[in-house]
Amino acid sequence: MRTHNFLAILSAVLLLVGGAATAQTTANSGGPSGGIYSCTDSRGRIITADRPIADCIDREQRELNPSGTTRRTVEPTYTARESAEREERARQQSLLQARQLEERRRERALLVRYPNAAAHNRERAEALVQIDAVTQAAKKRLAELSDERKKIDEELEFYKSDIGRAPGAVRRKLDDNVQSMAVQNRFVSDQEDEKKRVNSRFDDERIKLRQLWTSDAGGTAK
After folding, report:
1. Are 100 and 133 within one domain?
2. How many whole angstroms separate alpha carbon 208 and alpha carbon 110?
3. CB 160 within 8 A of CB 152
4. What is residue 57's DSSP assignment?
């Protein structure tokens, strides 16, 4: 009788020990899915489960260790449209960063080229002198063409009532003179426009350079 009671008690103890071991093993493994998932849903509720939570598919979830620490973060699941929008935002952000880097590179190059106001003024003056020299050459050519035209007009004096009766060579000289003067006048006009562009560029640079000179320890902002 005593032997039978002893065996019954021993069996009960073994079952308890086995059950506790099984429970501990399950807890250490995090349940069937290997962890506990936790998130805050759209209504502000904190949800936990032994598998990824459907109500939080659109937001971040945490997979927890048995101790409550975060094992890993599960990113939201996005629709095709949401994924495309995220990719476009990332692309725009990348382009913005690239433009910012390029702008900083240009600023550094500008500061190296023009370390102070005197250097910038000097290069502006040199650029304008070159344009003026080209313009003066074109105007000189216009003066020569004007003198040529006077001579041609003298030759055509007899035919002024009917230019078509004038010798072919004279008419060709007249046509060439007219075309050459038109070309030179356009060239002079283009040089005036170029002069305006150069001044505008240097004016824009000066605004930027004032900021760079001020922030640069060796610069002089004027």
Report:
1. no
2. 9
3. no
4. T
